[in-house]
Specification:
Strand content of chain A: under 5%
Order of helices and strands of chain B: EEEHEEHEHHHEHEHEEHH
Structural class of chain A: mainly alpha
Structural class of chain B: alpha/beta
Largest sheet of chain A: none
Number of helices of chain A: 14
Strand content of chain B: 25-35%
Oligomer: heterotrimer
Chains: A mainly alpha, B alpha/beta, C alpha+beta
Number of strands of chain A: 0
Radius of gyration of chain B: 18 Å
Distance between the termini of chain B: 49 Å
Distance between the termini of chain A: 42 Å
Largest interface: A-C, 53 and 56 residues
């Protein structure tokens, strides 16, 4: 056999046909006749409707005018309604001069939420930070101390109310959900049935009925003479609702832990609670973070329902601002778009984060 | 209290069922002496794993007496906890805790269950890791190690409790062929140090080299018990002969 | 063959402890329920509210804007609830059918090789998923009541069946109606103040239906996409190596296998749509929650009315789940 000397071939860059913008166009939009046809059809539709939309929304729109200007002929979208009414949309019926308080409070809360998402901040100090920020949120909003005037909770509204409801409900629902998830997997039939009953009952009814219950029935459940703030009742209702859904997500994570882990812990002499605390929950909770994030996004959107029980958060504050103002009322749709944009910004950011976390978790699993 | 010549494990007419119909352990009578090394083999479904899992009460028997180091296993929680401190177990799937480092895996039970201070637990852990020749991986995470290395860590973890009995449930069945030897070497060294071992395995070479007794089980019963020499060269029961021909054939 | 012996019971055993824990828990829950019920009874006595479901047979005293059954304000409450229930079911059933169609198409579109198509479908999903459904319903309702022309100058489209009118008064279309000479098409026509005759759908119904369908379709699209992607790539590769086209592979290989993964979350979305239909109360569509709300205001029987709607939704949820489980089992068995 003749000995051929092995000559290694150095790597070369790829030919340019499949790279670069032209290559992308070719492969993604015009790869075969069917795809090309679809591109042409969709492209034509877009080319027809998109300019019209742009015309209405941007080119012919008024941004900072007054109501009369918007009524003129040939005017497109009237975004001035946002410029005019943004304070009542964002802050509800909160007294005008004191609106710096909900602003600061909201910024604090949002920073806390963002910090809770950064892995580097996951220290015991974070729990303290949560308590501090929540306390200062209430202090700022309610006032009645340090020279701040008192503002009753029925005047709270707009974006701060949305964020407060969502954050508080999730924070309170989490321990409840954890207990219920563990209870559903318990070997004790009474505990398991009760937890299952709770979850199936709450998941089978719409949130609006839970809010009605909070609004109409909670006062009846309390001893006569004891009045509970409507805000507290609504938070209680949303918490009970959110906990059922979160319990299911956590339970899924618990089920994904291989039985061998629990057996190994048992064979090492660890008790049930030690096993849950040290072995099962740390692993389970890491995998359910994306699911819990989705729960948070849902609850954030669901806070819009409190409008129906007369708490004026972001969705309801628009009606508050426009229903009594005949000048601006025709431009309610622009106001709605503004609010939709705010929700979209928050929810999209949260869902991107959730996706990122999921990717991180999957990276950690691969060897 | 315990005479050194007392058997350390006694099975007395032990029966177990799964549900109402599957009679998985049938009238098991077995006596294990201190320091004895036993290999249990048999076809799948014969109840071998169930037998050793009864010893540390991962499975519960319904009939008969099972006594481990003088403690009778029953519904009594205190008895179960006491027995688990004496018995260490190594699983087929390793079952290491992936979110803890190797060192934390080893010190977890001594600290939380044995109430041993952290420094002492870590010293003990490092000793065990050296015993299985893997001390340099102490701060790595389990998923960063190969299968053979993970199983050796699992053995060290069980040894941290300083158990009197070590149970092995098919420890090499989930390993790639080239890693089986390193784990068997560790087990052989352990066996030489005088610990009582019960091992469910298909590795007949290991059985021949290390075991004092080979137990063959089929359909929930102990069919034959003998020294390795006798069992492999002259199996008495036709079922044992059948099994051996399948195992040793390829 | 022997059967296992009965268990013996000792106080230190695990079973004893478990029993004690459970009895304690049940006692606590029982105490809580007694406390709540006691307070409720006292509160109702103080406010002079009657209790009991007998109010269902009293005259309702309010009108309902639309419905499939004959109803006027002299009818009893139970009939009002029945009308509300039929309204809910109307929107739910139609919504489920439409959202399945639209959502599946968009889900498949997201997996298209055409970047424009998959981009558009992706944008659809992201936009409609991240805005609350109540806000979307309010916007659709606003669109219908502001943008559409008044009822005396409706938009008209002539189809091969007859004219279709769209205005602030709703959608009017040719509808089959039983008459003396058999089935006849009742055609709508533009009247002086409104569109007359023909089958009619109110703007409330339209806004609710379209809003719910478009919102839920975004989620259905994701469910379908995840289901199709869950089929291992090896299946598609095998199909390609056997000479099947992409469309054939999708229809014959991927979709049937994807269905098993799709059905449970799809059921969830159907239930969500049904539950979201309760938001009709915000746009004035008389679904069962809206009727219950009015009834509470009229009769004061909050506990009874809320229990009724919770019971109705629980039954609907249970029914849908059972139906889907049956379909799931059938689909699985057929594949064996």
């Amino acid at each position: 056999m003749s000995a051929r000397i092995f000559e290694p071939i150095l790597a070369r860059p790829a030919p340019t046909r499949s790279a670069g913008p032209l290559g992308w166009l070719r492969s993604k939009l015009f790869s075969d006749w069917k795809t090309s046809l679809a591109t042409l059809l969709v492209g034509t539709l877009l080319a027809y409707y998109l300019p019209q939309l742009m015309d209405w929304a941007v080119l012919r729109a008024r941004w900072l005018s007054d109501a009369n200007d918007c009524r003129a002929e040939g005017v497109g979208a009237c975004w001035s309604v946002v410029a005019e009414k943004y304070r009542i949309i964002l802050f509800g019926r909160y007294p005008f001069e004191e609106q710096w308080r909900p602003l600061v409070a909201t910024l604090l809360m949002v920073s806390l939420l963002v910090a809770s998402c950064i892995r580097a901040c996951w220290r015991p100090a974070l729990a303290l930070a949560w308590l501090l920020v929540l306390a200062s949120f209430f202090a700022l909003m309610y006032g009645d101390l340090a020279g701040l005037s008192k503002v009753e909770s029925d005047r709270w509204g707009g974006l701060p109310l949305t964020i407060l409801l969502a954050t508080l409900s999730i924070a309170l629902a989490f321990p409840l959900a954890l207990a219920v998830a563990l209870g559903r997997r318990s070997g004790l039939p009474a505990i398991r049935s009760l937890c299952t009953l709770y979850v199936e009952l709450v998941r089978g009814v719409p949130l609006i009925s839970v809010l009605f219950m909070a609004s109409f029935l909670f006062p009846l459940f309390m001893p006569p003479g004891l009045n509970i703030d409507v805000l507290v009742r609504v938070v209680a209702g949303i918490t009970l609702f959110a906990a059922a859904y979160m319990a299911e997500v956590i339970r899924g994570g618990l089920q994904a832990i291989p039985r061998g882990q629990v057996e190994a812990a048992a064979s090492l002499g660890l008790s049930y609670w030690q096993t849950q605390r040290l072995i099962v929950l740390p692993q389970a909770l890491a995998t359910v973070v994306p699911g819990l994030m989705n729960n948070f996004i849902s609850i954030f959107k669901d806070t819009s329902l409190v409008t129906i029980v007369s708490l004026y958060e972001l969705t309801g504050s628009l009606s508050l601002g426009l229903n009594s103002d005949a000048d601006w009322r025709p431009y309610k749709i622009e106001g709605y778009f503004f609010i939709a944009l705010i929700y979209f910004a928050f929810c999209y950011a949260m869902s991107r984060y959730s996706l990122w976390v999921e990717q991180q978790v999957n990276k950690g699993k691969a060897r | 209290m315990n005479n050194m010549s007392d058997p350390i494990i006694i099975f007395d007419k032990v029966n177990k069922w799964y549900g109402n119909n599957f009679h998985v352990l049938r009238d098991i009578d077995l006596s294990v002496a201190r320091g004895e090394r036993i290999v249990i083999c048999g076809p799948s479904g014969s109840g071998k794993s169930t037998l050793i899992r009864c010893i540390n009460r991962l499975e519960e028997h319904q009939e008969g007496r099972l006594v481990v180091d003088g403690i009778e296993l029953s519904d009594d929680i205190k008895a179960t906890d006491a027995v688990r401190k004496e018995v260490g177990m190594v699983f087929q799937q390793f079952n290491l805790f992936p979110h803890l480092t190797v060192l934390d895996n080893l010190t977890l039970s001594p600290i939380w269950s044995g109430k041993i201070p952290k420094k002492e637990a870590e010293q003990n852990a490092m000793q065990q890791l050296e015993r299985v020749k893997i001390a340099e991986q102490a701060l790595k995470y389990p998923l960063q190690l190969s299968g053979g290395q993970q199983q050796r860590v699992a053995i060290a973890r069980a040894l941290c409790l300083k158990p009197k009995i070590m149970l092995f449930d098919e420890p090499t069945s989930a390993l790639d062929p080239e890693m089986i030897k390193e784990v068997l070497d560790v087990m052989t060294e352990l066996a030489a140090q005088g610990i009582t071992m019960l091992c469910v395995t298909h590795e007949m070479g290991f059985a021949k080299a290390v075991a004092d007794r080979v137990i063959f089980m089929d359909e929930g019963q102990i069919v034959e018990q003998a020294t390795p020499q006798e069992f492999f060269s002259n199996p008495q029961s036709p079922r044992s002969r059948d099994f051996l021909s399948k195992i040793l054939g390829h | 063959m022997r059967t296992p012996p009965k268990r013996r019971w000792t106080l230190r055993s695990r079973s004893a402890r478990n029993l004690i824990y459970q009895l304690l828990l049940l006692a606590l829950i029982g105490l809580l329920i007694w406390f709540l019920a006691h307070n409720t009874a006292r509160n109702m006595a103080v406010r002079g509210i009657q209790s009991g479901f007998d109010f269902l047979f009293q005259t309702a005293g309010f009108d309902i804007g639309e419905g499939l059954l004959d109803y006027d304000s002299s009818q009893p409450y139970w009939r009002a609830f029945l009308v509300g229930l039929t309204n809910t079911l109307r929107v739910a059933v139609l919504g489920i059918i439409l959202t399945t169609l639209i959502g599946t198409l968009i889900g498949i579109g997201r997996l298209s090789r055409n970047a424009l198509l998959s981009g558009l479908c992706g944008a659809y999903v992201e936009f409609f998923r991240n805005v609350p459904v109540l806000l979307q319903l309010l916007m659709w309702y606003l669109l219908f009541t502001e943008i559409l022309p008044a009822a005396d100058a409706a938009w008209r489209v002539d189809t091969w069946l007859g004219p279709v009118f769209l205005s602030k008064g709703g959608l009017s279309f040719p509808a089959p109606v039983a008459s003396a000479s058999g089935w006849v098409l009742d055609l709508p026509r533009q009247g002086e103040f409104a569109v007359e005759q023909g089958g009619a759908l109110t703007p409330e119904f339209l806004a609710l239906l379209i809003g719910l369908t478009i919102y839920t379709a975004a989620f259905v699209a994701e469910v379908v996409r995840a289901g199709i992607q869950s089929v291992p790539r090896g299946q598609t590769e095998a199909a390609a190596s056997l000479g099947l086209s992409r469309a054939q592979a999708m229809r014959l290989i991927q979709l049937p296998q994807a269905l098993r993964v799709i059905i449970p979350p799809m059921t969830n979305q159907y239930l969500n749509l049904t539950k979201n239909s309760s938001l009709a109360v915000a746009i004035g569509y008389p679904d069962v929650v809206s009727i219950a709300n009015t009834s509470i205001n009229q009769s004061g029987r909050a506990v009874e009315c809320i229990s009724i709607i919770m019971l109705i939704y629980l039954c609907t949820s249970l029914g849908t789940s059972l139906l889907m489980n049956w379909y799931n089992a059938r689909a699985a068995i057929l594949e064996r």
